[in-house]
Amino acid sequence: MTGHPSAQRLVAKMLAGVVRPPMPLPLSQWLAKNLVLVDGPAAGSLWNASGAPYLVEIADCLGEDHPCNTVTIRKSQQSGASILGLGWCLYIAEREPANTLYAVPGLDTLRDLTGQKLGPLIEAWQKHTGRIVIQPMTSRSGMGSTALEKKFPGGYIALANANAVMDLSSKTTKKGIQDEFSKWSDIPGFGDPDTLFFGRFTAFRRTKDYKILRISTPEVDTGDETGEAAGHCRIDRSFLQSDRRFWNVPCPECGAFFAHDPARFKVDYDHPHRSRYACTCGHMISESERVAAVQIGQWVPAVDPTGRQPGFHIDQFISLMMSYEAIAEDVIRAEKGSEKARKDLWNLTYGRPYKHRGDAPDYQRLMERRETGLRQGHVPAGGLLLVAGVDVQMRGIWVEITAHGADRQNWLVDRFYLDGDTGAANAPVFLELLDRTLDQSFPDAFGRRRQLDAMAIDTGYRSHVVYSFVRNNQRLHPDTGKDLILAVDGRKGWGLPAIGTPTLVDIDLDGKRIKQGCKLWPVGTWSLKSSLYTDLHKLGIRSGEGVDPPGYCHFGDWVDEGYFRQLTSERLEDIMVRGQVTGRRWVPSGDNHLLDCRVYAMALVEYLGLSSTTPEEWAALARARGLPDELSAIDLFTPKPRVLPSGDGGPVLDVAPMSAPAPTPAEPEPGGWFDRSTNDWF
Q1: Which of 15, 213, 259, 330 has its CA 20 to 30 A from that of 663?
Q2: What are residue 522's DSSP bridge partners?
Q3: Strand intervals (E) in 252-344
Q4: How far is CA 270 from the centre of its chain?
Q5: What angle do CA 33, 37, 42 make, to 5 degrees?
Q6: How is residue 354 annotated by DSSP?
């Protein structure tokens, strides 16, 4: 007689199917089955590890079965790593429900996160799987998700502005993402947002089952080997405290595994697509060999991982969205650009923090390269912008006048000291300043006369006298309508812009108070000094090179030793605390008034648009300034580099000089930069 299953067995079997926990599924495998990409060339398709094989190990560190509490990703642009934090949120909602805090710096970034990134990913994921995990947004019940809070059974994802104290308060969370971590800044009156963020995890610190992902491109390297110094890049600090894993790839010739070092990347300046990476065995690795090697690479910690959390470095050398050619183009662009361009190369391409250069060049070497034919008080042929930097002291005023070209080459036009008491804004010495600068015209190389485009005056000494002088003598540029005189305030610290947003300050002088009587412009002096010293180290024609490179500094043979001593009077000094380097700071070794003047002049050309002006606009400006056709062609402002042999056999960047012959310039399109006379020339 056949038997029938008892009710007890039947119920037990049904319950077992319901309560059985899901089989373990690492995050990397879950992403491949669930995450639908919503932008880029692969939009509409599922995430695939073959496009970024280095992400698999990182993703699997984020699962609850991995014992770590913090995962750090120090990354470049175009690495594909940003998708991990977003995909992890969806994985948490379905597989490991827990309250999750996702913080980004700033309201604009927060709006982009919720509207352009996470929201579309949720919609595409749920449409692909046919499951509704994240509750939809509702307007009446109050039970559904909102723009900044995505609810699911067992928890929520709270989206927060890392710069707002209320967004980082009154929450208890188990999982967290600190996105663009390097750009987090202290909250006035409340301190470090990282401390506030970590406070949300207090309930899980004893059990140590919380998990935080830190991800960001890096910023500034203060020189502190531990990363603990104030102002040091946050993501680099976290990476230095981790086990510092690098993606090692095999050389196709010797088979040895290595992590890419920017110093071994050999750029072909004439043909960037032929750029190669030099293995220590001597083999020059090609782009096709790089791609194959990246696919079979492996993570290797650079330090003993015992007691350390996992940290990963991702740069564009291992990104399959980039190429050696694209990286070479970035290198060429950075070498032709400013200090900011070099910083961008290190931060966004190499994925490393940028250490500003601060070794002052030898003033005697600068004297040796002085040029004949550069006349004092005359504007050279390549000088399209003419500016003055002014440093006011108790008994006199230091002035430097410089001309600047489109490729950042610059020429000293004049420098002088005006003796006299600076205690009053209408003192004779200030009248002499006007007579020698704004009321003066300067002959150029083509028989025309030029006037200053802007003048910056330091307010660090006699502040209210300078405020009053600027207010009483302010005038607008006849072409641009912009202020001709800028009261500037030099600011210490790394990461500050060359020239920031002005604020209105009160003038308090001789018992009279004028509310908001003057605009004060902040100037980030530390980065500008580093940029200047980098340019002063460059070698040009006077040193035997074929051409003068972008950023090259020209001096006439009329310049004396005292000028060069002041220009090179500061250096970067390591800050030592208990025997460890905790940062770097500028320290003077003598009078530095003319160095300050040069720094303010560099800020002025950024104020005038040096970094944002297009080649067509430069050509139009050159024509408006009376330069002949052979010096105002667009081609001169977009030179193509070529390779000259160097002493060590490596390539040297060569940019066509200003005097090179050029084709007849093309006329700008109607309504272009200078078709409106010379108005709005920046």
Answers
A1: 330
A2: 489
A3: 257-258, 265-266, 276-278, 284-285, 298-301, 311-314
A4: 26
A5: 105
A6: B
Calculate the alpha carbon distances from 268 to 252, 328, 651 in Å.
21, 7, 7
* Residue 236 backbone dihedrals phi, psi, to 5 degrees: -70, -40
Pairing of strands 553-554, 410-419: parallel
Note the pTM of the prediction, 2 decimals: 0.63
DSSP states of 569-592 as a string? -EEEEEEEETTEEEEEEEEESS--
Give residues with Cβ within 8 angstroms of 102, minimum separation 6: 85, 89, 113, 118, 157, 158, 159, 160, 176, 177, 179
Q: Per-block average pLDDT, block size 10, for the chain (682 residues)?
A: 64 63 84 91 90 94 93 92 92 94 91 90 93 80 81 94 89 95 85 92 94 93 74 90 96 96 94 95 96 96 95 96 95 82 91 78 88 94 94 96 94 96 94 96 92 95 93 89 94 87 86 84 92 89 88 94 92 64 75 95 94 86 80 60 35 34 33 34 37
**Length of the chain in residues, anyone?**
682
The alpha carbon torsion through 660, 665, 671, 675 (nearest 10 deg) reads: 80
Q: What per-residue string of b and e applies to 615-650 under the rule 16 or more CB within 10 Å gives b?
A: ebbbbbbbbbbebeeebbbbbbbebebbeeeeeeee
Determine the Cα–Cα distance for residues 607 and 499; give it in Å rounded to an integer. Answer: 7
Task: Count CB atoms within 10 A of the CB of residue 441.
Answer: 11
What angle (nearest 5°) sits at the alpha carbon of residue 104, between those of residues 179 and 193? Answer: 95
Eight-class DSSP state of 181: G
Per-residue exposure over 364-384, b if at least 16 CB sit within 10 Å of its own CB, e if not: eebbebbbeebeeebbbbbbb
* Sequential DSSP letters for 196-234: HHHHTTGGGTTTT--EEEEEE---B--S-TTS-STT--H
Residue 370 to residue 628: CA distance in whole angstroms: 26
Give the number of other Cβ atoms within 10 Å of residue 110's Cβ.
23
**How many Cα atoms within 13 Å fall on the side-chain side of residue 101?**
26
What is the rounded distance in angstroms from the CA atom of residue 133 to the CA atom of residue 90? Answer: 9
